[in-house]
Each structure stands twice: as structure tokens, then as C-alpha cells.
Amino acid sequence: MNSLNTHVAIIGGGCAGLSAAATLVERGYQVTVFEASSQLGGRARTVVVENNDLMHLLDNGQHILLGAYKETLALLAKIGIDEKKVFLRLPLQMHMFSSTAKSIFSLKSAHYLPAPFNMLLGLLLCKGLSFSERIEAIKLVARLKKMQFQIANDTPLNRFLINQYQTSKLIAMLWEPLCLAALNTPIQEASTRIFLNVLRDSFSGSKHNSDFLLPRLDLSQIISQPLSHYIQARHGTIKLNRRVRSLETTKDSAGKEGFALETRDGKSFFSHVIIAVSPARLEILLEDLPKLKHVLTQTQAYAYQPIYTIYLQYSSETKLPNVMTGMSDTIGQWVFDRGQLCGQKGLIAVIVSAEGKHQKLTQDDLALRVAREISHAFPNMPKPLWHKVIAEKRATFSCEANLARPTNKTLQPNLFLAGDYTYADYPATIEGSVRSGIRCAELIANS
């Protein structure tokens, strides 16, 4: 396609929209990004918290990336981000504590071995499971490898694991925490097929694919700000606080087919459009496009899952045994020492994924309950000085078994959908968003 005659509107300045824009401007296309809020990044953005006249920059959630996120890492490298400076890379390891200060499960991959033997030996030597449970876990990984991590019919993950002779303790200690971290969906509902796709990418190929990548900086500094600079340096336009009021098909003065996009500034003509917003926000954009009614029908049936991040500030000398620790039989699921991770001394971040009883608590009560759990798991912890709860109540779509998901290419010519919900092989992740955005850009370039 001739890039000189193509002007692409990208609606949404999250990871999907910015990935599409970066790919297009690199190839010489004229691009305008419309973002409804005052900040780029979508769910990967910075929140400013004021306490005692001090300003604190926090992520809207404590994110975990994987070494298998090849497209994300390649995109960041392209825009000049040095992975070693912005991420702490940890070989796969899980340390699970109970609320009684006991280490109840510990797994560490054998990073000196190639995949999948690094994981298999890690399972064999893990602590907290019986020998027979460890053998059953190893047998399952071996079977999945032989099956190429594919199943004929999707099913809820908990049911699949039970059918694969995984005990309730093995599920609770190993598979459920991984499911919540990867899919943010209760294991009783989560898609086995999508979970196995994540395992395939993590436990196949390079042994580094299963590494955890923990951000040392807030994701605005790692993703959205550098992408914004990259796009604008290549003559792309980014418009913040520009909610799109309507989108309809039209023709320009020369009779060329395209789209009229209306914001508070009036209407503008574009030859192509990429819609890169949450599926929950599609209705206003698609209501004048009858060819896409089936997409609305599909996505309006989606359920959503929350993610709560509880930040607890302790005295500056407070330090946990590990940068990242799991919790069992507690509200809090993953605990991060941001002092060790990114220099915010004494700041602890606790993640609570998916729906649960915690949603009925006030934010102050939730923070108090989580602080109490931490004091039980890690004795001699002082009282926190302050707390901040960030609740993303519709953080991700619920990645359930057999969930129908739309494709990037639509029945409306030259209109594309980007976002993690369109990348059918993955759950709601940064990697899924990036891959979908790049795919939309490639569809335009190759048309």
C-alpha cells in the first residue's frame, strides 16, 4: 500500500494502539492517535499519590512480564529501551508463605539446564509437595510437551488438572497461582487452552522464556513515554483528552472511501481506522457501523475481572526475604518488595487478582487485612506508615473456556480491532496487546 495516500486513525493510546502506531510510522505511514484521557498507557500507567506533602509515583498495578514476551521485548529494544536497566530478570521461582509464617512451597527452576529440563528438575526438587505429587506434576509437563501444549476441546482449567491427576494441594500451590498471574481468572472458569499457550511459550525454546521480568521503573517510563517519543519523532501525531464521539463511513472530496471521526475538535477524514480500546467501550464507536454488530454481540457478553494493588509504606529499613513472594490462604496473593526492586525503600506492593470476597471490603479495611496478613507471614514487621489501594475493577476480560474473540480484521474494509481481547492465543496481557497492535499495522501495510 502507498503510505503517502494513507492516514490511519488509532483510537486508544494503550499498549495496543501505541504498538500499532510505532509499527506504522516506522514504515512511513501518517498516523494520528486519539486518547480519551490525559495520559497514555491504558492499564500500564502511572498514578501520582500524595502523602504528607510528598509525591509518590506508583504503577496503577504491580505488573509481571515473562521472558516469553518476545514481541514486547523486541518493540522496547527497537525504541531504545535497555532491558537490563528497566527490568529485574529472575529465573522462574515461587516462594509461597502461609499466614502462620511458614514456608509451605518453594520452587526454583534449574537455570543451568535448557528448557524444559530446567523446569522438570525444579519440580523434582521443589519443597512443600510429596514425592508422588512432584512426580505427577512432572508427568503432566511431559505429557503437555508431547501434546505440544494443545488440547482438542477447551475446558475449565481446574477440571482439566483434576483429570490429569493433579492433587488439590498441587493445584493450590503451583497451578492456581500461575493461572491467576497469567490469566487473572479464577481457575474454576479459566481457559485450559489459553493457559497451555502461556506454558508452551514459557517452557519451550529458550530457558529464559520462563523468567519473570519485574519492572524497576513505572511502566509509563518503560513503555508509553518512550513509544510516544518514538512515534512523534517520526511525525506521528498524538492527541490526548480527545474522546471519539462518533465514527462513520464516508467519502472524501475526491470520492475516496474512508471514515469520518468526530472529537471535540470536529470531524476529520481518515483512510483507515484501528480501534484499540477495551471491548467494554466499543459500543459508541461501532453503533454506526452495521457490519460490525456481531462484534458488539460477541463482546457485550464478556465478563471482567478486577485487580487490586495494595501499596503499604513501612519504615525505610524494612526489607522482605525475597523481592517477590507468594501467599496462600490469604487475601493477598503476591507480595513485592519495591525497595529491593526499584529503590522505593520500605514500600511493599501486594496483588489481589480476580474476583473474591475482598471486593466487599472498603479500601481501608482491605489494606488493614492485607497488612495483618503480612505481619503474620513475616514476623517483626512494623506497622505501615500509610497505604494506598488502587482498584482496577474491570482490569481484564475474564479469560474463560471457549470464549469467542474477534479477529483484528473486520467485515468493514480498512477498519481493524486491536487489543489483548483480539489476540486469541493469549489472555489479557501486555504481550497480547502488543502483538495485536503490530498485527493490525501489518494488515494495513500488506493490503
Give a description of the structure.
There is one protein chain. The model has no long low-confidence stretch (mean pLDDT 93). The strands form 5 sheets. Strands 8-7-16-17-18-15-19 form a 7-stranded mixed beta sheet, sandwiched between helices. The chain has a 5-stranded parallel beta sheet with strand order 10-2-1-14-20, with helices on one face. A 3-stranded antiparallel beta sheet has the order 5-9-6. It is an alpha/beta fold and 447 residues long. The relative contact order is 0.19. The protein folds into 3 domains: 3-44 and 219-302 and 402-445, FAD/NAD(P)-binding domain, CATH 3.50.50.60; 46-86 and 303-397, Protoporphyrinogen oxidase, mitochondrial, domain 2 (Polyamine Oxidase, Chain A, domain 2), CATH 3.90.660.20; 103-210, no CATH class. The protein has helices spanning 15-26, 70-78, 83-86, 117-125, 131-146, 157-163, 168-183, 192-203, 219-233, 283-286, 293-299, 338-342, 363-377, 430-445; strands at residues 7-11, 30-34, 46-51, 54-59, 65-66, 87-90, 93-97, 103-108, 212-215, 237-239, 246-251, 257-263, 266-270, 272-275, 304-313, 324-327, 334-337, 347-353, 386-397, 415-417.
Helix content: 25-40%
Poorly predicted runs of 5 or more residues: none
Strand content: 15-25%
Provide the spatial order of strands within the biggest beta sheet: 8-7-16-17-18-15-19
Total of DSSP H or I helical runs spanning 4+ residues: 14
Mean pLDDT: 93
CATH fold group of the largest domain: FAD/NAD(P)-binding domain
Form type: globular
How many domain units?
3
CATH architecture of the largest domain: 3-Layer(bba) Sandwich
Number of DSSP-assigned strands: 20
